[in-house]
Amino acid sequence: MVKLIDGKRIASELQQKLKDDITRLFPINKRPGLATILIGEDPASQVYVRNKHKACEDVGITSKGVVLPKEVSYEKVASTIISFNKDLAIDGILLQLPIPEHLKSRTNELIELIAPEKDVDCYTRINMGRLIAGEGIFAPCTPKGIVHMVKAMGESWEGKNVTIINRSIEVGKPLAILLLKENATVTVCHTRTKDVGAHCRSADVVVVAVGRAKFLTSEMVAENSIVIDVGMNRVEGKLTGDADFEALSSKVKFITPVPGGVGPMTVAMLMENTFLAAKQRRLK
User: Fold this and answer.
1) For this structure, is 15 an active site residue?
2) Catalytic choice (121, 204, 242, 244)
3) What pLDDT is stored for residue 126 in this prediction?
């Protein structure tokens, strides 16, 4: 019988441990601090940022949020990031993505302005390079959460064949790096891959993040495999993932629900990265 990977439960357990560690290591007036920058009024981004601030409150991290108008200039966003770089009370800086269309071409420029030691999303070139070299203290939050949640189900990544259907800098590429470190064998599929299903059927674990509802069908996966669904789609007003959840549930060993799977783990890992940043900066 299929088992759900309950991201909410696993994230809650991780956040309780973080809360205990923060209480033990940091005086109440010197708690780790996270700053968020939200541009515009996109409803989904507003919800994501609100959830992150709520998580900060739950674990004992202080948080500051700046909301900038949709038509804000590049210079204003840049100066906001730089001001947080200089703020000694801030250990992590998060620029909520995506940003408005007129700034999208300069997304990487804005990310590179974040001080690497405060880059808790692990998107700067320096931190991504450290991740590849196996020397960084951060990993991008969604891939890091995926690695953690499978382990929390009592499964080892070692020796597993893993197919990732995504090659983005946010999910696919860093996840592949993390899984190689876990001694998994990794295949990365993308829009030019021929016969994605063939790669999935030979996998012990399939991670799908393509932004298409019910993309991953029952015929595409092996019996008793594990499915990690990173997708977030709206279908008839309901949130759904990239996997055909109902069809897959009768075939696979473990599967993540949407919502309640990878999403809560991403937020929990942001909290952990902020905690690690604070330890690195303040408790040397």
Assistant:
1) no
2) 121
3) 97
Domain-wise residue ranges, the chain? 27-115, 141-263
pLDDT of residue 281: 87
Q: How far apart are the first and last CA of the chain?
A: 48
Active-site annotation holder among 96, 144, 160, 204: 96
What pLDDT score was predicted for residue 157? 98
Residue 46 a catalytic site member: no
Residue with tokens 């594990």: 226
Instruction: Calculate mean pLDDT across residues 130-135.
Output: 94
Residue 237 has pLDDT above 70, yes or no: yes
Q: How far apart are CA 112 and CA 108, in angstroms?
A: 6
pLDDT digits (tens, 9 = 90+) for 191-225: 999 999 999 999 999 999 999 999 999 999 999 99
Whether this prediction's pTM lies above 0.85 is answered by yes
Catalytic member of 52, 118, 160, 173? 52
Q: Is 151 a catalytic residue?
A: no
Given a contact cutoff of 8 angstroms between Cβ atoms, the answer to whether 229 and 128 are in contact is no
Residue 44: per-residue pLDDT: 86
Asked whether this chain's domains 27-115 and 141-263 adopt the same fold, the reply is: yes
DSSP state of 255: E
CATH class of 141-263: alpha beta
Answer CATH for 27-115 from 3.30.1330.60, 3.40.50.10860, 3.40.50.2000, 3.60.9.10:
3.40.50.10860
Among 173, 145, 147, which residue's Cα sits nearest to residue 269? 145
